[in-house]
Design goal:
About 75% of the residues lie in helices and about 0% in strands. By secondary structure, the chain is mainly α. It folds into 2 domains: about 60 residues; about 30 residues.
Length: about 110
């Protein structure tokens, strides 16, 4: 029987026990025992989850060196391409800001009222 099935069974026993016709004084023994079993199964589930997470972490940390070198090269290419794009956009924005500034000394403001 799997631990999931066992947990469901003991939970069902906790629910059914008050309606089973068992003498009331037995509840003081039965319910704490069932509670301890349920807590133990909960700890079992938690330890399995923690160990599976640590195994996953160890697996992802141990990557082959060729794959990491490939990733590093691709990342460097991406950085170079981004730098080129930013330098082109910076020069374009500088040219557009120069074009937008009017030469105030050569222009005269026409007055509507003469």
């Amino acid at each position: 029987m799997s631990s999931e099935s066992t947990l469901i069974l003991f939970g069902l026993l906790v629910v059914i026990t008050p309606y089973s016709g068992v003498p009331t004084f037995w509840y003081t023994y039965i319910l704490p025992i069932l509670g301890i079993v349920i807590i133990g199964i909960g700890f079992l589930f938690r330890s399995r989850r923690v160990s599976s997470q640590s195994n996953t972490t160890q697996t992802t940390q141990q990557t082959p060196s060729s794959a990491s070198a490939n990733d590093s090269a691709e990342f460097q290419e991406h950085l170079n391409k981004r730098d080129e794009e930013s330098s082109v956009s910076a020069s374009c924005s500088a040219e557009s800001s120069d074009a937008q500034q009017p030469a105030s000394s050569s222009r005269k403001d026409p007055s509507p009222i003469s």
